[in-house]
Amino acid sequence: MGFFHWPRRKRSRSPAKRKESVFNPGWRTLAHPRSVPGDSPESPTLEPADAIIEDEYGLPKGWESMDLDACATPALPTELGEHLHPRRLPYLPPTPSPKRAASPRPPKIAKPAQDELMDVDDPWAQQARKDARLPHGPVSAVQLFYAAKRPIPANRMASWYEAEFQKREKERLARERDLRRPSRVVPRGQPVRLLTPEWAVKLQRAMQAGQGNAVARSLAGDDLYQRDIVTCIRPMAWLNDEIINAYLGLVVHYLRQLNGNLNDRPTFHAFNTFFYSTLRDKGYQGVRRWANRAKIGGESLLNVDTVFIPVHESSHWTLLVVRPMERTIEYFDSLGSRGARQVRNVKEWLRGELGSQYKDEEWVHLPSVSSQQDNGSDCGVFLLTNAKAIAVGVEPTSIGPVHITLLRQKIVAELINGGLHGEFSPQDMKTGAVLL
């Protein structure tokens, strides 16, 4: 069964002209049958000016000069068209903003007077007072960099750097003490000069002298007997007070002669063996006049070069050396003690003598060292030898227990000689070396 085909009619259209915009008045529109906005608008009938002629079996003609938009359905110019199809708004110039009025200038503040500035309580001072009231207020680490150490208040905690500061402060003080220590030499070879055969014979005769015969005399005019020198020349014997006082007198006499010191203003002095024990037991009042009798009392003590103070405690002899001009204190103990208590007692005497001139921070306890004894009997010999070594500028540690026998003999020989002169001069005439 075949299909029936209706014959197609040939349509012919004239070439369409360029489509104009919906808003172009060139479009020919028909009147709307209804003008009520609420009713649905009806599409108007358009009458194209020219139609495109299209052959059924041929290509369309007239498309060459035609805009492609001509085939589009034209917009419907209804009452809602102006709302449905946006258009560019007309240009409106900007409205000028009103000018702002100038702000009024602040009134000038009068400059306060200098007295008023001093009365202002700044916030830093207020905070400092608050911290001071705290039981453990903060402490600034800046205090570690002050030239002089500032004390930390009792109600504050020390800085974290305090331990390091204390360590460096001790090192600095140690360097200062080393600079203030007197320079002393260590002899090469034998530090003690040997006795001549002649003096060996004299010592033998002194040991054989009668009990009532004086074998030597001190510079103070006190006689020394055989019973006195026996305590020094016999091995392992304990030196008595007479030998100690007499020999320290020889050392002071040597220093005064060496420096041309007059007796009216002595710069070298040695207290006797009772000075320290009296100071220890009775305080400064017990020895208040001792320095005046020696012509070194009061503020004139600061002009003294060296003061020797023998110390006898618990059957042991030690030596204190005070240098008022240098503000130093040395303690020599052949058993190795530092002598903190002895130095404290001597500072009490210095405080009483100098009065307002005494400043504790000026006085330095030097860490001096003595040669060590190897028994319980030679402490007195080390005391006198240390005093002589300091006087002649020899390091006290240059001698030791091996020299004790010779040192005992030389102490007695120098007492009999009446001083450190002649054959007992510390400086050798041939070599120039300084020996004990």
UniProtKB/TrEMBL annotation:
<feature type="compositionally biased region" description="Basic residues">
    <location>
        <begin position="1"/>
        <end position="16"/>
    </location>
</feature>
<dbReference type="GO" id="GO:0005634">
    <property type="term" value="C:nucleus"/>
</dbReference>
<dbReference type="GO" id="GO:0006508">
    <property type="term" value="P:proteolysis"/>
</dbReference>
<dbReference type="GO" id="GO:0016929">
    <property type="term" value="F:deSUMOylase activity"/>
</dbReference>
<keyword id="KW-0645">Protease</keyword>
<comment type="similarity">
    <text>Belongs to the peptidase C48 family.</text>
</comment>
<dbReference type="Pfam" id="PF02902">
    <property type="entry name" value="Peptidase_C48"/>
</dbReference>
<keyword id="KW-0378">Hydrolase</keyword>
<dbReference type="InterPro" id="IPR038765">
    <property type="entry name" value="Papain-like_cys_pep_sf"/>
</dbReference>
<protein>
    <submittedName>
        <fullName>Ulp1 protease family protein</fullName>
    </submittedName>
</protein>
<feature type="domain" description="Ubiquitin-like protease family profile">
    <location>
        <begin position="222"/>
        <end position="390"/>
    </location>
</feature>
<feature type="region of interest" description="Disordered">
    <location>
        <begin position="80"/>
        <end position="115"/>
    </location>
</feature>
<dbReference type="GO" id="GO:0016926">
    <property type="term" value="P:protein desumoylation"/>
</dbReference>
<feature type="region of interest" description="Disordered">
    <location>
        <begin position="1"/>
        <end position="53"/>
    </location>
</feature>
<dbReference type="InterPro" id="IPR003653">
    <property type="entry name" value="Peptidase_C48_C"/>
</dbReference>
<keyword id="KW-0788">Thiol protease</keyword>
